[in-house]
Amino acid sequence: MSASGRLPGRLRENAHLRRALGMGSWEPRQVVVPVFVTRGSGKTEIAGLPGIYRYGVAEALAFLKAREQEGFANFIAFGVEESGMKTPDASLAWDASGPVCELMRRAKAERLAMAAWADVCLCQYTSHGHCGVLEDSEALKLEPAGTLAALSRAAVAYAAAGADVVAPSACADGQVAAIRAGLDAGGLWHTAICSYSVKYASGFYGPFREAAGSAPSKGDRRGYQMDPARGVAEALAEVRQDEAEGADMVMVKPAGPYLDVLAAVKREAGVPVVAYQVSGEYAMLRAAAEAGMLDFDRCAAESLLAIKRAGADLVITYLAEWMGG
Ligand code: PBG
Question: What is the DSSP string of 56-101?
Answer without folding.
Answer: EHHHHHHHHHHHHHTT--EEEEEEE--GGG-BTT-GGGG-TTSHHH
